[in-house]
Amino acid sequence: AARAVRGEDFPEGAEQSLITDFAYGGELTVAPGQPILFNNVDAVPHTVSAGSYEDPSFDLFDSGLLDPGSNFTLTLDEPGTYGLFCTLHADMNATVTVTGE
After folding, report:
1. Could you give the CA distance from residue 34 to residue 65 in angstroms, rounded to a whole number?
2. Going by C-beta distance under 8 Å and a sequence separation of 6 or more, which residues neighbour residue 34?
3. Closest CA to 44 of 65, 30, 14, 71
4. Does the pTM exceed 0.85?
5. Given this model, what pLDDT does residue 66 score?
6. Separation CA 8–CA 101 (nearest Å)
7. N or C: which end of the chain has fewer CB within 10 A?
């Protein structure tokens, strides 16, 4: 079962991705404009950065350093598939799919 780390400021209608055990968790498929709230519940800092470790796209989105307990909200308006990764941990990566709705 997913752990709920949703405070009063959790964006209405948002998906959640818990960053734990050096991985991005949760359903990373959203509608255009639907936010994803990344919660770093790991014991170490991470980032949520566009692209890949080998080919970053920081101009698209970049959370900067997320210390344990920090959050980052990502909202993408254009349908498509977006890679994301952690700049500190080369093996941490995921894909966000924005549906064509």
Report:
1. 23
2. 13, 14, 15, 75
3. 65
4. yes
5. 96
6. 28
7. N
